[in-house]
Design a protein that fits this description.
single chain, alpha+beta, 4 helices, Ribosomal Protein L22, Chain A, elongated, about 35% strand
Length: about 130
Amino acid sequence: MGARKRLMAEQLKERKSNIAFAKLNNCPISARKMRLVADLVRGVEVNKALNILQHNSKEASIRLEKLLRSAIANWEQKNEDLNIEDQVLIVSEIRVDVAGMLKRIQPAPQGRAHRIRKRSNHTTIVVDTQK
């Protein structure tokens, strides 16, 4: 490996040392519904984000809360030498991507059929310390 490439790799590793992420694949909620809840907690401090998700009535908030707790646990595992009470963790990034779709058929009158699309999503949460 060349010197420049090694230096860039070390800088990238240093930047990623304070972040942790969690990923939820094939969540059976449409991406549009999940994004409504994800927009509420993007860029917010994690304790406030957990409070927002606990008091939200949408089903997507239950799954996002569980995912956020997983990301926090991943950060604690990665940074064992740091105390979480001393750090200010924020939800730096949330990505909600469209996943596969289950296609079903609903019988309709006069021999017809309607297509039902059951949409799902992939969600990624990145937790970082505040700069």
